[in-house]
Every structure is written in structure tokens, then in C-alpha cells.
Design a protein that fits this description.
Oligomer: single chain
Largest sheet: 5 strands, parallel
Strand content: 15-25%
Structural class: alpha/beta
Shape: globular
Radius of gyration: 23 Å
Number of strands: 14
Length: 445
């Protein structure tokens, strides 16, 4: 797992002099546990608890003293608490009391390196527990991004070049082809690892099936009522085909469920990091405020699972270009997946897109990017002659100095003038450089 960028983020956390307990967030099977197990090799001692096990959860049920808890665990596991000791509490949401006790690890045992993880941890925030606000740090884990895919498939020099915006231009076509492969299979670590070993798409099918079945089985844990369970199962059965599209909540997936019930189910699934509803903004100036009454776009957490669940994956394998697949929805979906990695790195939680707040107008950009006191419009396009009318409309209305087009062409930064005379810098960014968006903007603006 050394190809995962999360290692460097964990290292930065551990090197802080005022380090707080770290909570890893992310969907099941995105590599939280494996990443911590790998990171633990840097420590003198390692204690790993899984609170899905009653014996591990009981440590927190019978005492309110973190020192007593740690001493008991040390004795039971024959693990000394000396030197650099990493204490990992996995599936922490299964014992809410352990969440409340995290603050006391920070206050009473700052010498201990404490990491907690739980795919359903967000669901506890609104329950009647003392969540340790201000006493913990967070790190969001996502499926592997494209750079990590390159590292996992034995191309570390390509990974470094893509991560650092330094790929030789002559390699453009080759790396675009690799990006297409990544788009087809997605970034689930187990899938990426198996593909790296075999290079065989057919051997990935059982793993996709297992992952999807696991998320369906988790419905029982995500839902508080039988009705919620039914609605979440319905979304898991019908929602994959709506990936990357603007959706209506009421009667979603040809159901009879009203918008309120569907919204509640989506909220539960967002807390489990299975998907994200991307809402539009209507302003062209900061701050970015989502128009929650408008229809959102639906993005699942992994494009490979979308391809498999909808049955289109076999059609995509081997195609020289995927930019027009599924009316462009798959391309927009993988862009959203890559963008989330960059946004989380910059402490931004949500994706947004822009729609013009004018009756009769259909101007809409695929995404937006906030840079200081500017909002940059973002379009996902294919070739050199792609229309960017909505992007131009945004520039005219906002006066922003730059705009972004993600495409399959090579990188360029072009001084551009709209038909109305507005000047701006058009950043044409190849899909494989999406993860460098923040670095590119910092360089050119």
C-alpha cells in the first residue's frame, strides 16, 4: 500500500508536536484499516482494536479512565506502552462511548498516537453523545486517485510526474490511455491491487460483486427504520444508472417515495460516504452557497463500481476514448471523483456546479472552483472544438480572470477573450492532471 498518498498524510500528522487523535473517514473498503496497518510499521508498538468485536468494545464499556483502558489492553495483548506506540480503534462507531473518550486521550495521554476509523462514524454526530469537537483531527480517505493507480500498477515515475505536473508531453497519449483504464475499473484498492497483479478485467468481477453485496448488507446498519432500509435498498438498486446526472428526489428511480423520504435516505448514505449530492450555486462571486432547493447531481464514491453495477463496463474496455461514453456522464463522474481528492486535501467538503439564475437560461457549468476571492468555472469537454458557451457566460457575468477545461488534449494556458470582450486565462488541463488542479492554479494565477 505504499503507493497510497495517505501514508505521507499520516506521517505529517504523527510529526506534529501538538498532535490530536486522528479520525479517518471514508466508505468501507477504501483502505482505512490497511493504510493504518502499513503505517504502524513505523512504530515501536502497535495496538489494533476492532469494536465490531464484543471483547474489544468491552474495554470502553467498563471504565471511564483512558489510562485504565490502555493499561488493561496492554496487559491483555501483551503489548508494552513504551517508545512510540500507535493505538488504532477501528469501527469506533460500534461503541459511542469510545468516541466521547477520544478527547481524554488528547488531554491525558498526549504521548500516545491515537487513530480511530469508522465508515458510519458520521451517523453518531447527531446522536446524544459527547462528540469531541476541537479535540480530534480528521483525514478523509477516498478510493485510489489516478496517481495512486499508476503507483500500484508499477509506474512510480509516472505517478511522480502526474502528481507534480511534470509529465513529458511525448507521453501524453500513453498516459491518457492509462487514465481510460483507470476510469473503467475505478479506484477501490482491492480492485486496483488485483488488476495490477493480473491485468485481467474478468478476474475483477467477483470482487465488484462482493463489494456491492457488502454495501447492500450494510443497509441494516445505516438505517433506523424499516422504511429507510427499503428506500436505501431501492437507491442501491436503481441509483447507479443516475450517476453524474441531475436528479429529482421525488419518485427517484421510478418509485412512489416522496422527496422528503428520498432526501433523508440520501443523507444517510452521504454520511456513510457512499455517494454525494452535488448542489448548484447561482452566484458568480464568493461565498459559495448551495441552492438546496434546486435539483442536485448524483455522484457515487467510485466510478468503477458505477460501470460494473450498470453493466456497461464490458463496453468500455479497450475503447480508445471514453469521453463520450454514456452521454459524457462517465467522464464527468470520474472528474468528480478526482476533484474530491483535491478538495479534501484543501479542506473543502463539497463539490458544486453553477447554474444561471435567470428565467429561460440554460447556462450551466459542470463544476466550480473557488480560488481566493474568485470563482473559476469548470467544464468537462472532449476535443479542441468543444463548445464552452456556459463557461464564457460565467466569465462575462463574474469578471473572473481564469477558467478551467478538463479534456483529453494536452495542457495549455491560453489568453482568451469572450465575444463580449472579457479577457481570461483558459487552463486546458488533461484528465490525468486533475489531481494537480490546485498546483496549476497556484502556478498560473
Amino acid at each position: 500500500m505504499i503507493y497510497r498518498n495517505v501514508y505521507s498524510q499520516l506521517k505529517q500528522w504523527s510529526d506534529k508536536p501538538n498532535r490530536k487523535p486522528l479520525i479517518l473517514r471514508g466508505a468501507r473498503q477504501v483502505g482505512k484499516t490497511t493504510s493504518v496497518d502499513e503505517f504502524a510499521k513505523d512504530f515501536d508498538n502497535y495496538i489494533h482494536l476492532n469494536l465490531e468485536k464484543k471483547t474489544d468494545a468491552d474495554f470502553f464499556r467498563f471504565s471511564d479512565s483512558v489510562r485504565e483502558i490502555v493499561q488493561t489492553i496492554s496487559f491483555r495483548t501483551s503489548t508494552p506502552i513504551k517508545g512510540r506506540t500507535l493505538f488504532f480503534i477501528d469501527e469506533i462507531q460500534n461503541e459511542p462511548k469510545s468516541v466521547a473518550l477520544l478527547r481524554y486521550f488528547y488531554e491525558e495521554m498526549p504521548e500516545l498516537y491515537v487513530i480511530a476509523a469508522g465508515s458510519r462514524l458520521q451517523s453518531l454526530i447527531h446522536e446524544h453523545i459527547s462528540f469531541p469537537v476541537g479535540r480530534v483531527e480528521y483525514l478523509q480517505l477516498t478510493p485510489c486517485n489516478f496517481g495512486e493507480f499508476l503507483g500500484a500498477t508499477g509506474r512510480p515515475q509516472y505517478k511522480d510526474a502526474v502528481d507534480n505536473f511534470s509529465l513529458p508531453e511525448l507521453l501524453h497519449d500513453e498516459v491518457m490511455s492509462l487514465f481510460n483504464t483507470y476510469t473503467v475499473i475505478g479506484g477501490m484498492p482491492e480492485i486496483v491491487s488485483l488488476y495490477a497483479q493480473t491485468g485481467d478485467f474478468n478476474q475483477l468481477r467477483p470482487v465488484y460483486n462482493t463489494l456491492l453485496k457488502g454495501y447492500e448488507d450494510d443497509v441494516e446498519k445505516y438505517s433506523a427504520t424499516q422504511k429507510q432500509k427499503r428506500i436505501i435498498r431501492h437507491i442501491l438498486q436503481t441509483g447507479w444508472s443516475e450517476a453524474g446526472k441531475t436528479i429529482k428526489l421525488g419518485n427517484f428511480g421510478n418509485s412512489q417515495y416522496p422527496s422528503g423520504d428520498i432526501r433523508e435516505a440520501f443523507t444517510i448514505m452521504e454520511k456513510a460516504f457512499l455517494l454525494q449530492l452535488c448542489y448548484p450555486v447561482t452566484s458568480v462571486k464568493p461565498p459559495v452557497l448551495s441552492a438546496l432547493r434546486r435539483a442536485p447531481k448524483l455522484f457515487w464514491f467510485d466510478t468503477g463500481l458505477v460501470n460494473f453495477a450498470t453493466g456497461i463496463q464490458p463496453q468500455l474496455v479497450g475503447r480508445p476514448s471514453l469521453t463520450d461514453s454514456w452521454q459524457g456522464s462517465i467522464t464527468e463522474h470520474i472528474v468528480a471523483q478526482e476533484l474530491r481528492c483535491v478538495l479534501y486535501r484543501n479542506y473543502v467538503e463539497n463539490l458544486s456546479f453553477w447554474v444561471r439564475d435567470k428565467k429561460g437560461s440554460n447556462a450551466e457549468t459542470d463544476f466550480i472552483w473557488q480560488h481566493g476571492n474568485m470563482i473559476l468555472p469548470v467544464e468537462v469537454k472532449t476535443g479542441t472544438n468543444s463548445h464552452i458557451r456556459s463557461l464564457v457566460s460565467f466569465v462575462d457575468l463574474s469578471g473572473t480572470k481564469a477558467a478551467i477545461r478538463y479534456w483529453s488534449g494536452k495542457f495549455s494556458a491560453v489568453d482568451t477573450v469572450t465575444p463580449s470582450g472579457s479577457k481570461f486565462l483558459l487552463l486546458n488541463i488533461p484528465f490525468y492532471y486533475i489531481g494537480c488542479t490546485d498546483k496549476i492554479i497556484a502556478k498560473y494565477l
